[in-house]
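TA notes, week 10

Several of you asked for a full example with nothing omitted. So below is the full record: structure tokens for the whole chain, then the designed sequence directly under it. When grading your own attempts, check the secondary structure regions first.
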């Protein structure tokens, strides 16, 4: 990039790049357009177009698995391919789905809808009535979180004239009955929290202006959100009302269409799932009850009636260990399914309540290595017969979609995804690096069996919000990195949920800096083991992982050859003032509190950039329609680095939301641009190994 193209530090404000926070501002868009041109000129061209088309063709393959959910007797699917880039909402039967080439009935062609209405529509959500004749569709412009709600008739396959319609806002609705919605939406004056989510739960009746909908429940504007959920497993359709106090704390009550009636007497730092008269929950902290103290992440069960009557006789359904934790749980036909990671190995247990107590069994027939995800086939729990779906894969084995009928029968393969890259000679191995404080940090390596000491390595991680990173089959990395001789590494940093709350808490708030130390330790371990050298390591991270990548730039520049930072948070001083940023205070801290800014500033890379450092080249990419993480983070960091003379590139397509594109071609182009940049900057020509 030439000096003439670099912005300058000439504004009197202490942040000279605030103007880049104007998402649609003319000066900001001029900057974006110029930057896009420079980046595409440098890393586009025929090689880029070839790889983009190769990857898009993989994403558009007709034999990819069409993932489904059952509504009534039909299986529903949202399908995208080259002919339908925005997607088809379609349905079939289970018997038909078992066939190699099922016959599908199209309910809505989103491409035709977008063309007819002249809008950048994507379908991001479907909520059907209990009888599955009507639906509320969430239509997103370009992939944004904010949606327009519109009522759709599934029999006539058309939108309902004078039906329920709500302008663009964050939030959604649930059907109380065919003529009444439970609305949790930020639309309307005073209806949004400071995080931009719904502050109220309203009862919206057919034909009624939404402004006249009765407010059943409301939360303070400082809460993250308010929500309502209808439990149809109860005869009177119990409504659960919740205040999301922050990302990890909830205040919950039950009631009916008049509003909350009884508050649930449980800790706020909790994960809870209700099913008729049964309740399962997992506190995030140690909990003392009935004279006994239980460890954080213990899973408890109790009858809801007993709890409301003051009962404190809780059944212990799961007890954690230092490297064994529940990742989630759900109900299906009266059975509670626990998803467990035990030393990163998947386990699934079924707990069944009755008047005589809880019985326990292991979900049968699933592999105990690789990645296994399990979820209910039925969208509505009240319609479930217990059928489950499972997805099984690993970095070299494409996914298989399995059916476990009634949750107890041996799994049956419904669909097998195609192999999209050649895996000959590749192996998957698991290792551990030692971080700065002695903690063992797991990571999965995929690549050639023989180490050369000079492998082109693609490293990635996340390390936040208690999300566990799993080694999935990745077609883009497989085709464009592994098949061409490279090695991939995926690290399990603190801040994630792989080993429960203690692992998450160690890498959040002031500990977020420690999470970044973990990633840097993995890079060192790759060199120590003779896999590669620092200049051959390319690293990528997105969203929360964007904080990670920019901290590798400013804190550990000597350990990497190139960095790709996507849809990132970067400016930790202003993040709470940008879009949904206030909702993440429980993960990072509040920069307006001096004692919390003290730790936030240690990993606010935007404030820690220094002149004349050995920073590796970086490409920072975002999307303009991302209404979750403000694109100003990426814009400002790129501009500041460029003004200081560093090699920093920038890319921002118009659509994509908090992702890489609104369709398969855009997604492929975004990813390939990153691959082309990283390969060039670590000095790797495809096929060299």
């Amino acid at each position: 990039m030439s000096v003439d193209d670099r912005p300058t530090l000439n504004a009197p404000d202490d942040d000279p790049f605030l103007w880049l926070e104007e998402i649609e501002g003319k000066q900001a868009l001029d900057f974006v357009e110029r930057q896009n041109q420079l980046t595409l000129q440098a890393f586009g061209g025929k090689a880029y177009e070839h790889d983009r088309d190769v990857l898009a063709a993989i994403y558009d393959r007709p034999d990819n698995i069409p993932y489904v959910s059952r509504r009534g007797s039909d299986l529903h699917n949202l399908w995208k391919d080259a002919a339908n880039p925005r997607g088809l909402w379609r349905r079939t039967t289970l018997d038909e789905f078992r066939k190699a080439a099922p016959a599908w009935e199209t309910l809505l062609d989103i491409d035709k809808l977008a063309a007819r209405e002249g809008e950048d529509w994507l379908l991001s959500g479907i909520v059907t009535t209990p009888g599955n004749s009507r639906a509320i569709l969430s239509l997103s412009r370009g992939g944004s979180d904010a949606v327009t709600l519109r009522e759709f008739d599934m029999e006539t396959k058309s939108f309902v004239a004078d039906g329920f319609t709500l302008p663009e806002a964050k939030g959604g609705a649930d059907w109380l009955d065919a003529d009444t919605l439970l609305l949790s939406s930020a639309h309307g004056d005073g209806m949004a929290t400071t995080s931009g989510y719904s502050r109220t739960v309203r009862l919206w009746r057919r034909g009624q202006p939404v402004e006249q909908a009765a407010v059943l429940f409301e939360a303070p504007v400082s809460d993250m959100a308010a929500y309502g959920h209808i439990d149809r497993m109860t005869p009177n359709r119990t409504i659960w009302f919740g205040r999301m106090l922050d990302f990890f704390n909830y205040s919950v009550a039950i009631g009916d269409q008049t509003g909350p009636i009884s508050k649930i007497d449980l800790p706020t730092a909790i994960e809870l799932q209700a099913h008729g008269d049964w309740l399962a929950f997992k506190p995030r902290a140690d909990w003392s009850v009935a004279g006994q103290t239980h460890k954080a992440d213990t899973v408890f069960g109790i009858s809801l009636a007993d709890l409301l009557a003051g009962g404190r006789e809780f059944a212990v359904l799961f007890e954690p260990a230092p490297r064994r934790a529940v990742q989630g749980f759900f109900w299906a036909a009266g059975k509670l399914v626990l998803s467990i990671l035990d030393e990163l190995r998947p386990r699934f247990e079924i707990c069944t309540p009755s008047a005589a107590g809880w019985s326990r069994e292991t979900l049968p027939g699933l592999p105990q290595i690789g990645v296994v995800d399990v979820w209910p086939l039925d969208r509505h729990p009240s319609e479930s017969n217990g059928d489950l779906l499972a997805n099984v894969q690993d970095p070299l084995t494409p996914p298989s979609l399995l059916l476990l009928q009634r949750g107890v029968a041996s799994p049956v393969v419904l669909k097998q995804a195609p192999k999209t890259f050649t895996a000959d000679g590749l192996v998957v191995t698991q290792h551990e690096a030692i971080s700065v404080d002695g903690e063992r940090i797991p990571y999965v390596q995929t690549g050639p069996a023989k180490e050369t000491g000079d492998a082109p390595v693609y490293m990635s991680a996340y390390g936040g919000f208690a999300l566990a990173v799993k080694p999935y089959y990745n077609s883009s990395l497989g085709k464009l990195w592994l098949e061409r001789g490279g090695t991939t590494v995926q690290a399990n940093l603190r801040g994630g949920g792989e080993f429960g709350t203690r692992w998450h808490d160690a890498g959040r708030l002031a500990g977020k800096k420690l999470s970044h130390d973990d990633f840097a330790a993995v890079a060192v371990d790759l060199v120590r083991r003779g896999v590669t050298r620092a200049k051959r390591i390319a690293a990528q991270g997105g969203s929360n992982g964007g904080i990670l990548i920019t901290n590798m730039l400013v804190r550990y520049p000597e350990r990497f050859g190139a960095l790709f930072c996507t849809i990132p948070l970067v400016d930790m001083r202003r993040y709470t003032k940008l879009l949904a940023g206030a909702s993440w205070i429980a993960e990072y801290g509040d920069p307006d509190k001096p004692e919390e800014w003290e730790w936030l500033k240690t990993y606010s890379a935007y404030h820690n950039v220094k002149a004349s450092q050995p920073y590796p080249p970086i490409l920072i990419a975002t999307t303009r329609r991302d209404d979750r993480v403000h694109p100003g983070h990426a814009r400002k960091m790129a501009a500041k680095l460029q003004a200081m003379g560093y090699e920093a590139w920038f890319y921002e397509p118009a659509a994509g939301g908090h992702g890489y594109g609104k369709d398969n071609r855009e997604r492929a182009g975004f990813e390939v641009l990153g691959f082309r940049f990283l390969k060039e900057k670590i000095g790797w020509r495809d096929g060299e190994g």
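Residues 286 and 295 are 4 Å apart (CA to CA). Use that as a sanity check on your answer.
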